[in-house]
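Handout, section B. The chain below has 214 residues.
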Amino acid sequence: MTRKIDLPDIVPIFPLPGALLLPRARLPLHLFEPRYLAMLEDALKTPERLIGMIQPNRVPGRSGPGLHTIGCAGRITQFSETEDGRYMITLAGVSRFRLVEEVEGFTPYRRARVKWTGFERDQGGEETDTRFDREAFLATLAQYFEAQDLQTDWDSLKEADDELLINSLSMLLGFEPEDKQALLEAPSLSTRRETLMTLIEFEMRGGDGEGMMQ
């Protein structure tokens, strides 16, 4: 059962291209830059222990490190220090958020004021995909893995629940950052699965762009 937590108006944010965190999923991270070590230390002092993962958004003609408007906050559930001073942490996805504005301050890392409205479902129970044709999906996935020379534990994939299967593949497969953002912003598990399938089929065609969803 998912435990709801109080969501603050301001969260530390970690802009990381291509990194995708989804609600109820887990994302391992290595932290080594001093600013992010400071972010970790400060986050651990709060009751929520949240870090907001968000992707940079490079807009042509605009200066400065822009950000996408939607990210996902994760709760620090594990952390350990390595011998060389890095930290290995695990974030458990809590909820997506909409960025309102960045907050100026004296912290070396970035912070943002966010809104959680519109993502109430994220703190609920596991989603299901009633239209999911698992057999057809896995057949296409097998072709994709063969084409990409990827290996996986097929027994675990076949036994995984709908949400775990779709979200894990969305997070782990090496899509472009903008494609990862589309997967993050999908309003439902069914929509995310459809987007994931489109991306897989696009890659299998060699990225020729024919038939891509608009």
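Note. Residues 209-214 have pLDDT under 50 and may be disordered. Compare this with the example in section A.
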